[in-house]
Amino acid sequence: MRVTGVIQAGGKSTRMGGRPKALLELGGRRIIERVLDAVRPVVDDVLIVTNTPDLYGFLGVPMVPDAYPEHGSLGGIFTGLAAASGDAAFTVACDMPFLHRDVARLLVDRAGQGDVVIPRVGEQLETLHAVYGKACLPAIEARLRVGRLKIVGFFPDVRVVEIAEAEVARHRAPGVVFMNVNTPEELARAQTLVAELG
């Protein structure tokens, strides 16, 4: 099965004072470069969903604008999945500096087993570190059209395969793998973690 890696970079970074989170540096590299390094080796191709393509041109990766602007992460998931050349899209947020290649591979290797392949950590489904198959498109679009933007809202309409927290933990602590950098405080914590992880 062909899987496209989709990096979501459509947010406004309001909690970071408007600075694009993806371009913040950690350990001498931008967060989005770290994301790309984790995703690229396990997928067939990569694209970025963004409404500010000028910011990411230096990466040399194809970019697509939101098909449903102002429709949050669900709109971004739809956009990336619709644009994906593969049968499925491994979708991640642009502000997750500690993504792990082997955790990504866990999901991509199971892409054919369900319409959504997603890790669960406690009560939380990691919706922006998940594989979405093309079969999800009608269910997602139906919700976008009526403004129902909760990502897991369409899950009852598709086949969902969950990856257990313990499987993720074999490679890296889930709290680190799925950490987002949304605030200056989270950036400071990430800078400490970069030093600890080497």
Any chance you could write out the topology, listing elements then pairs?
Blueprint: E1 3-8, E2 25-26, E3 29-30, H1 31-39, E4 45-49, E5 63-64, H2 72-83, E6 88-93, H3 101-108, E7 116-121, E8 124-125, E9 129-133, H4 137-145, E10 160-163, H5 165-169, H6 174-177, H7 184-197
Parallel strand pairs: 1-4, 1-6, 4-5, 7-10
Antiparallel strand pairs: 2-3, 6-9, 7-8, 7-9
Helix pairs in contact: 2-4
Structure description:
The protein is of the alpha/beta class. It has one domain: Spore Coat Polysaccharide Biosynthesis Protein SpsA, Chain A (Alpha-Beta Complex), CATH 3.90.550. It contains seven helices and ten strands. The strands form two sheets. Strands 1, 4, 5, 6, 7, 8, 9 and 10 form an eight-stranded mixed sheet that branches. α2 runs antiparallel to α4. The termini are far apart. The mean pLDDT is 93.
Please tag this protein with its features.
198 residues, alpha/beta, Spore Coat Polysaccharide Biosynthesis Protein SpsA, Chain A, eight-stranded mixed beta sheet, 7 helices, 10 strands, globular
